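Worked example

This section walks through a single chain of length 879. The input is the sequence exactly as stored; nothing has been trimmed or padded.
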Amino acid sequence: MSATSNQHFKPEEHYLSNGIPVILQHLEGSVGTFHWWNLTGSTDEKPEEAGFAHFLEHMLFKDSGAKDTGQASTGQLAKAIESLGGEVNAYTTFDQTVYHVTCSEQYWEQAVDQFSTMAQPQRFLKEDFEREREVILEELRRGEDSPDRQLYQTLFGLTYKKHPYARPVIGYVKTLKAANVQKLEAFYRRQYISSQMGLVLVGPLHDGTGARKKKLLAILEKRLGKTKIAKKPIAKRVRPIEPALSNGFRFKADHFDINSPQFAASFRIPELMHHDVPLLEVMSGVLGMGDSSRLYQKLFYDKSLVNDVSTSVYVPRDPGMFLFSAELKKTEDLAEVCRVFCEERNRLIMEKVSKSEIERVVTNIESEKLYSTQTVDGLANRLGFLKFSLGDLDFDAEYIEQVKSVTPQTIKRLAEQYLEPNRMSAALYQPESETLLTIKDVAPGFENIQAPQKVAKKAAVKKREPLEPETFVTPSGLRVAYFEKQGSPVFSLHSAALGGSRLELSKPAPFGGVSHLLSQTWAKGTPRYSSKELSNIIESSAASLDGFSGRNTVGLQGTGLVRDWAKLSDLFQEVLLTPTFVDEELQHAKRVTEDAIKSIPDHSSQVCSKLFMENLFPHHPYGKHLLGTQENLEQVKREHLVQLHQEWLVPKNMTVTLVGGIPRDDFQEWLNDLDAKLAKNKGSSSMEQKVAAEETLKAPRWAYASYEREQTHIMMGGLGLSMFDADRYALKIFQNILGGQSGRLFIELREKKSMAYSVAPIGMEGIEPGYVGTYIACAPHKKDEAIAGMKTVLENLIKKGPSAAELVRAKNYYLGQRAMDLQSTWSLASSFGLELLYRDRVILESEIRKEIEKVTAKQVQKIGEKLFLNSPHLTVVVS
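Given that input, the structure is written out below as tokens.
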């Protein structure tokens, strides 16, 4: 069901005086959003303008009057929005650039008013231009360290020889360095015109009088109407047409600093509006969507040739790609992996696809639309795409009807027509120590591609705060939170228990990483169902059911559609209580985890984080990596998981939470059954074990790792606070003064000095004190300057304190982020469940707001002084 066909979503269309369309959509809740669309992307660039659309995305966040005043940007827009508790961001694609602001609904009008100023015609200050170019070059260098990004850039370059989709959206070093203010402004004036723009507002619009709609439309007219932006048509550029067929498939292998080989292949398919695209998505789902898909079962489970494998359909506005990707165990297995892909392709043609396989995929595609409408941003983004990119708000409804029309004969035609070598390109990244494969090495895998031979009434509930769940304790001692989101088509169940890496080193879990293995195998079998059968049931219902683990907890979380409550809630209970932890699944989990551990050196940021934790927590379990070590993995046996499950799944140490459109009586009936079964487990005293807090550093510590990469990653910090510390709210404000696009770290180190693309505060609260610090990723030659810069920012804030405006902005920003984070059923269920587990109660949003508002500038200084000035620090550098 699409957003526009769902009875709860009825978008209204309006137009400003210059013809700019406005979509208004009511969505009940405490958050509102505003999206400003521009139908300008990298495909609208001339070759010498590569990267300009993305460059503009950055520049429009600069102070709008910077060129007139001659004063460099100081992040006034972000500061104004974050002062209202909002969040601004943007993204650029091949075909569009979208700017968006999201905030608490009480500040929606002010945020829209402030944010709209960036859409008014601007000119750019040379100083801002030069600074931002350095930031973008840092972003580009960061991408060069990412094997995933580089692999797909290679694949796009092979797939598109004529079309501008071959060019990276971010551009090239050469074109960025050759750019100047005049060229960028010319591109801006050519592309950012009224006929290219569209606006979307989603949030609580219904106030009973229509006054809120009128006020928002008046603000948009004032800021973006004809008095500010003249009505002007665009001279459309003709994009080159990429031929669907070539003479054989294209292939390129290259080296990259990785441990696991990565492979991606594409088959050229039609444009987004083509009638075959929704049908191709169904075929892709049968082949490679989820654990129960054909390729995952064959390549991961049966043959153990890959760490991961999937297929998908990627279609921007113009002709797109059917993608097949795999992370290989060994490079020499690639031909066999490709052979299996072709074998499964031929089966689609020669054997009738089952009705249940098609239904599983169709249900997932349809439900994805429902899940995407849980947040204001998700719904606004979809409505914008439907209206401004496709020109059809009813496209999703028609798309779903086409998806539902798929038959085995349809899939047979699609596989034969589209999955053939003349449409194919492929890219491979290998570890640097290996000899590169050639097309001759890969081609045998594709030799066997052959043509075929011829709603109930809701129970009344006590009036509560907007996000106040009902909480209670069952006879067995289980703590429960229940929150009904009336009208929601989705529900989430969450059960958490004290455990995780913090308690791994005590019996019966003497090995680090064992709780991760527990979480990975928890939903992989019960006495009634095998892993494959569970996957089929879950995916056929477009649901999710997964174990989780962290530093302080383990648990199970599931999300599904309300219509499937009876089936899925019973399955959740069965998986929660009676997982089988079969050895075969444990071995699979070990292999995947081992590969993940091996891949840590491939990602400098992960290495940096790992070194930081190990050196800051040499004695406390928080210093152990959540995945454990390769040596640990070898020692873990099935009996350890069984024992852990029994020891940790004790009612008095557990919570169960339900959020969504399930009536209270239905939930209570299910809960009664669960509680009776849980009561049989009396528990043990092991959960009452205390863990000694880590000692503070006696002297500064340093840790280094060198990989000779394009970027240096730096973490600097020390021990922080526990989740029970009275100063935790002052620390949150301290970090929010540092963070965000108008925070001190961003303004001083990125905005003013172009030192880094990424700079931010870091931190974690635990049952025992966690950590706090700062992170930056920069060019290697800027390392010393970056460390000194972070220290200076911290010292200035601590010694001089925050300004009154900074304090207001940090408080509103924190509260606004909370409101945005707690929109979906799964995020609410997780938040309620963990709060109840740690504190025996759910702290209400009104309480949190009161505590945040009480924080003073002096308290901010004191907590900074305590944690940063009076304590030695650990500095980790990975280059």
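What to look for: The longest helix spans residues 126-144.
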